[in-house]
Amino acid sequence: MQYLDDDIVNLRRLDGSEAQYFWGDACEVLSESNGRLEVRIFPRRGIVDTGFIDARTNFRSKGLIWLSMVDVQQGDGLILETPGGKVIFIDGGDNQLFARHANFRYPNTSEQKPLIVDLMLITHGDADHFDGLTELRKSETDSRPDKRIFVAPKRVYHNGIVKRPGTTPEGRERKDSEMFGRTVEDAGETYVVDLVDDQGAVPGTEMNKPFKTWVGTLAAWEPRTLAATDQPILRRRLDHTKSDAFDFLLDEDIHVELLGPITETVQGQTALKFLRDPPDDANLMLGSVAPAGKGSLSASHTINGHSINFRLRYGNVRFLFTGDLNQEAGQRLRQALPGAAIRAEILKAPHHGSADFDMEFLKEVSPVVSLISSGDESKQKEYIHPRATLMSALGKAGRTTPSVIFCTELAAFFSMLGYVDNPKKPGKKVFAFERTNFGISHIRTDGERVLAFTHSGKEFFNEAYRFTVSPTGDVAFAAKVVKRSAPKL
After folding, report:
1. Which of 27, 173, 289, 440 is least enclosed by beta carbons within 10 angstroms?
2. Strands 369-372 and 404-407
3. What's the confidence (pLDDT) of residue 478?
4. What CA–CA distance (Å, rounded) separates 347 from 406?
5. What is the pLDDT, as a whole number, of residue 352?
């Protein structure tokens, strides 16, 4: 098996139609004649596409790391595949979109032959980061084969925090400080100490609805994982001290440095500091936070700030994953781990482009490509993401010119349908749009060369950038990507 070594390669099928493939797609050459190659291309697991490509197409013998930021609207959902075929899900949104993409990408699974997911990593316990993973299980009962997927996760990592319901069993509204179970007070600060490896160990009455559903989903997957791998699902809480969590990638020379959440030992217990509401003014943009002990305790900022964040390195290329890291947590990370290496070529921008970011953190990262997952699809989820200040900050913190910023909702494409019947109000019309392209963003790399690209609403029309990274982090952009047009029949 070989792999395409040109950036974009168009294939001509026998019926005259075209398809487009990219650097790193698996390819088998069948024959050569008349300036063209007859090939089989394997774009998705278990799928074969046959046709002809330009005979000048270059090939390589080894696969690439693929990272795809899936458009899940308001939320995060990423898929990382290693050259050796390991599959990692990082979050999964809170709707069907992540599952639908997984259904398409990994077809022909079954109860007996599930997709082995080497790791499901949930950066933190907000529903827009993990509730969509439960849709994978729900899809199993879909009558349409192309809409269902069977998975068997080997590992599930999380930050140890389980959200409680908004009200107690007695009907009392919980305070923010009560949302994560037991806490302790020390030197004027509040710390969460109810941290667990197995979220199922928390009583059902002490979990909110998404966590209850998630625990039930893992219980349903457990027998399948055991049958497929001879091991139960490894459930594990991560913090910055868990240096062995990603050892399963070392055989492919992929190295991971865990940067957070940052735990502390308080009164003999492992603890996460309760974070506070940030200033609601320009000071946030300027990198200021409320003085210690000031500002209200905030459950949302605490669970966001204590997202699992880590740097993955393959060859010269580094990826930084941040979950919903916020300004206070970013500043604490820099202070607690002053020697930590956070410089990275690819940055998963924190918190969907929120204004709650740490400028000094972004400067230290000095990204070449920043990926933002956002989509304010309803009034209830309107947060004005990505914020103008964050977009500006990413450009300013960028290492190079150009500084590439991809955003899922900006890469999505909507087609205008005009006035159509309103299904909710018979006899009335509504002016409608149809989403014809979801804003997925892709990164592929061999550890030195990087291809970053998105799609558009126009067939075979991409925004793509190619660059190389030296061992010292110097970046050189190619003048253009290499595109091979499909040959004539």
Report:
1. 173
2. parallel
3. 96
4. 10
5. 84
Quote the pLDDT of residue 8.
98
Inter-CA distances, 319 with 61, 78, 391, Å = 24, 13, 19
Q: What is the pTM of this model?
A: 0.95
Contacts of 247 (CB under 8 A, 6+ apart): none
Assign 3-class secondary structure to the chain.
CEEECCCEEEEECCCCCEEEEECCCEEEEEEEECCEEEEEEECCCCCCEEEEEECCCCEECCCCEEEEECCCCCCCEEEEECCCCCEEEEECCCCCHHHHHHHHHCCCCCCCCCEEECEEECCCCCHHHHHHHHHHHHHHHCCCHHHCCCEEECEEEECCCCCCCCECCCCCECCHHHCCCCEEEECCEEEECCCCCCHHHCCHHHCCHHHHHHHHHHHHHHHHHHHHHCCCCEEEECCCCCCCCCHHHHHHCEEEEEEECCCEEECCEEEEECCECCCCCHHHHCCCCCCCCCCCECHHHHHHHCCCEEEEEECCEEEEECCCCCHHHHHHHHHHCCCCCCCCCEEECHHHHCCCCCHHHHHHHCCCEEEECCCCCCHHHCCCCCCHHHHHHHHHHCCCCCCEEEEHHHHCEEEEEEEEECCCCCCCEEEEEEEEECCCEEEEECCCEEEEEECCCCCCCCEEEEEEECCCCCEEECCCCCEECCCCC
Judge whether 84 and 54 are in contact, CB under 8 Å. no
Q: Exposed/middle/buried for 382, CB within 10 Å: 0-12, 13-18, 19+? A: exposed
* pLDDT in the model for residue 410: 85
Q: How far apart are CA 210 and CA 362, in angstroms?
A: 31
Question: Which one, of 433, 438, 431, 432, lies nearest residue 413 by Cα?
Answer: 438
Q: What is the pLDDT of residue 229?
A: 97
Say which residue the tokens 């259904």 belong to: 103
pLDDT at 377: 67
How far is Cα 92 from Cα 100, in angstroms, rounded to an integer? 11
Peptide bond into 386 cis (omega under 30): yes
And the tokens for 274?
Answer: 């309760």
Tokens of 35: 């300036």
**One-letter amino acid of 198:** D
Cα–Cα dist 417/436, whole Å: 11
Dig out the tokens for 321 from the structure.
């994953």
Report, as ranges of residue numbers, the positions in the chain whose pLDDT lies below 50. 290, 293
Alpha-carbon distances of 107 from 48, 84, 149, 190, 318, rounded to whole Å: 12, 19, 7, 47, 30
User: Using an 8 Å Cβ cutoff, are 179 and 306 in contact?
Assistant: no
